Amino acid sequence: MKLRFGIFMLAVFFTGILFAEIYPAKPITFIAPAGPGGGWDTTARVVSQILKETNLVDQPIIVVNMPGGGGGVGLAHMQSKKGDPYTMIVFSPPLLLINLTGQTGYSYKNLTPLAMLIHDYGAFAVSKKSKFNSISEIMEALKKDPKSIKVGGISSFGSMDHIQFLIAAKAAGVKNLKDITYVSFQEGEHLAALLGGHIDVLSTGLAETVTAMQAGAVRVLAVTAPQRVGGILSSVPTLREEGIDAEFINWRGFFGPPDMPSYAVDYWINTFSKMIQRPEWDKIVSKYSWTKAFMNGKDFENYLDKVNENYEEILREIGLYKE
Known about the structure:
The protein is of the alpha/beta class. The protein is 41% helix and 20% strand. The chain has helices at 2-22, 39-53, 72-79, 94-100, 135-144, 160-171, 190-195, 207-214, 262-275, 279-287, 297-317, and strands spanning 28-32, 61-65, 87-91, 112-127, 150-153, 181-184, 201-205, 218-223, 249-256, 291-296. The termini are far apart. 37% of the residues are buried.
């Protein structure tokens, strides 16, 4: 019996070595858990493009859009790919938020973290006609009356645009965060709402403010980055420069399915670590005003553990955390 078991284990061992030597041996799928054009989709497509251009991957890479549930549909799909070395998904903070708010029972713990690749950041903008000249002035108004300011964003209540503003407000000393009015818009409606006076401040991603700022339609009061960003936004202060000890990082990275084989995990960590050193990657990062922020496997998972705790604290305070 022991002999048979030993032979079986040897067979498993050598089979694993064989798979590792020939991997990848067929097309790879990158899932963007949203529709075309957003951050997840852009990341999946440009990474796919660079991996092929630099010959780091010699198999076709297919990008599949899987929108729904703020990423929940894609996350659920990954559970059906348990152990599959050929399917990966792009995610960012909503991966944590949709679990903490009870929209899905799955979380980052039901995936295999492979690599964080970039940091993106948020921005707070007002109409050019606004009476507010700084984010500090907005926070002072909220301290006096948390219902006096209407905040708008693209993400849903309890998701990124909402949470990044609450993190800033909490750090600024605003009480009763749950009383702050937050209005969620479909993409394309948010700027019209700001310019039309339907909201007082827009909480959004950096990229969403650039065109309107160039046109002189809005003023960006602060960014959530740890230091100033480049380009047209280089004149915009960080929250900390405004006396608010906070930041919000829109990290973005790749995950495998649950129980992804170790040879595939090692392959992708190694491949991504090579990709981020290529000049082609530097050009993409610059084009989208991202920040290079590589973190692999276990370090990425440890980072998510800490961030998850921070998000949970905010969501508890506004009554959105689901046990």
